[in-house]
# Entry
Amino acid sequence: LEQHFGDPRSEECIKISLESCKIKTGESYLEFCNRIQNIRSLLISKVNLSADEEVRNAKITIYNHTALNVFLYNLPENMVRIVRLKSPSTLEQALSIVLEEVNFHEQYQLRNRFLNNSTAPRSTPNVAGSSFTQNNITPPQKF
# Structure
């Protein structure tokens, strides 16, 4: 039915659903972004029914901006900082930055795990002749 007649909800109702959208436990950033994009698409399809082109364009700009903000507000604080530094102007640009950071972080963790697992236990150097004690202080010696 929705395919033939569209979403029966009003534009206002769909707008509220966009503004209140939250990331679900276990949901990836890509899945969350897709949900936001779907809601935004529903809104834009409602807006496109408007006869006034100026109103249409203004609402599309507002909904694109709202979609970006909803996505950003649901990111962890450290990720928001990284994304904001790169100043994305669209939801899709923000997602691209997030996915790049997630991939970098995962690669970094894999590399560290690999390095930690592949290094053989090192033998401790002979410190008998060293001028350092456990506290890195040598007592004064009398000759």
Remarks:
- Residues 124-143 have pLDDT under 50 and may be disordered.
- The first helix runs from residue 2 to 5.
- The chain has six helices and no strands.
